[in-house]
């Protein structure tokens, strides 16, 4: 098992927890989160409101359910928690979830510093650190025609001095050629960037740390926040070092774990695990080239899997570059299968 560093106090800039109703922990629920809220009725009985949380203030929670919007007084809340999205087809949760729902799940594991919703689309900015935190996630209806939506995207990123970038999820393989948004972006000269596969697995199907021994002399350390040794090994687009914006984004999920494999006193492999209701995510997997092919990647996955199981995450996802055949082989061998794909489109120079 890994050595565990106790979690420190919440980092500066961490999002505050929502107010707590009497007798129930509402927790850090955000608008757009799928929730179930058990609440008392005037006759003393109880009912569950299941749906998307569309608003919350000091007095009430507003939940958009299949029956319509339900307004619940916080004083009447018995229990409230976030829940995973509903399945769209038969199968285990990691395969039954829809593409758009899984994209929304993954977005909660890598939150930007700033978010503005455009209908169902999410415009995200994070100081330029990673495409995931600095792109418009094009899922759902933007609430206006596509040319108008793209104009809003371009204006949003121009105001922040960032390139206009759209993340387009679609079935695999291919580049979503049958999607209207892809056709419009291509016609306007938006270039393809970073085709990526999203892979999922049932967490219980992943090996645990006890099944993946370390090489002689190696050991594992985990912590709730990344230390300087972990950060020094992280490579974004091949460049070492994590800017201040990146440090905030790395701890933006509901909960996360940072895993380091040490050979002696040298950090030779790292990974990040993250958590949202029902789901764990694996990101930032890196191994020093001289230490590859020693089983360290499998051990990183196993450490995150044990952590995820201890927190009740039934499903696990990761994202891998479509042309990274070595990583795809590692993940496929661990049990992950392709769920869908996405790529970015970047606006042409003005």
Automatic annotation (TrEMBL):
PROSITE patterns: GNAT
Disordered: annotated segments: 1-24
Xref: InterPro entries: Acyl_CoA_acyltransferase, GNAT_dom, Rv0428c-like_C, SH3_Rv0428c, YpeA/RimI_acetyltransf
Pro residues bias (residue ranges): 1-15
Domain of life: Bacteria
Stored Gene3D superfamilies: 3.40.630.30
SUPFAM superfamilies for this protein: Acyl-CoA N-acyltransferases (Nat) (SSF55729)
Ranges in coiled-coil conformation: none
Signal peptide extent: none
Residue span(s) of domain N-acetyltransferase: 219-350
Keywords: Acyltransferase, Transferase
Single Gene Ontology MF annotation: acyltransferase activity, transferring groups other than amino-acyl groups
PANTHER family assigned to the protein according to its UniProt record, in alphabetical order: ACETYLTRANSFERASE
Name of this chain's protein: GCN5-related N-acetyltransferase
């Amino acid at each position: 098992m890994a050595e565990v560093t106790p979690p420190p106090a919440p980092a500066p800039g961490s999002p505050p927890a929502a107010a707590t109703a009497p007798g129930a922990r509402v927790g850090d629920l955000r608008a757009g989160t799928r929730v179930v809220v058990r609440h008392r009725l005037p006759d003393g009985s109880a009912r569950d409101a299941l749906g998307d949380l569309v608003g919350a203030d000091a007095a009430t929670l507003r939940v958009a359910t299949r029956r319509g919007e339900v307004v619940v007084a916080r004083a009447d809340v018995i229990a409230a928690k976030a829940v995973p999205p509903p399945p769209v087809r038969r199968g285990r949760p990691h395969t039954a979830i829809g593409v758009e729902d899984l994209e929304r799940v993954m977005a909660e594991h890598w939150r930007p510093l700033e978010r503005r919703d455009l209908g169902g689309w999410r415009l995200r900015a994070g100081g330029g650190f990673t495409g995931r935190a600095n792109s418009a996630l094009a899922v759902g209806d933007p609430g206006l025609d596509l040319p108008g939506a793209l104009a809003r995207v371009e204006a949003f990123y121009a105001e922040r001095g960032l390139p206009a970038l759209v993340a387009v999820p679609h079935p695999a393989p291919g580049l979503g050629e049958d999607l209207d948004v892809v056709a419009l972006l291509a016609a306007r000269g938006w270039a393809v960037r970073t085709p990526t596969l999203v892979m999922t697995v049932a967490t219980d199907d992943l090996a645990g740390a006890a099944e993946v021994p370390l090489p002689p002399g190696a050991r594992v350390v985990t912590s709730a926040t990344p230390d300087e040794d972990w950060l020094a090994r992280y490579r974004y687009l091949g460049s070492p070092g994590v800017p201040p914006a990146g440090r905030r984004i790395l701890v933006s999920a509901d909960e996360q774990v940072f895993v380091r494999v040490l050979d002696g006193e040298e950090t030779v492999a790292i990974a990040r695990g993250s958590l949202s209701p029902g789901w764990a995510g694996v990101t930032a997997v890196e191994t020093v080239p001289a230490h590859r092919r020693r089983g360290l990647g499998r051990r990183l996955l196993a450490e995150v899997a044990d952590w995820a199981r201890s927190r009740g995450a039934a499903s696990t996802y990761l994202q891998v570059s479509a042309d990274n055949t070595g990583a795809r082989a590692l993940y496929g061998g661990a049990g992950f299968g392709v769920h869908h794909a996405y790529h970015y489109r970047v606006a042409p120079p003005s």
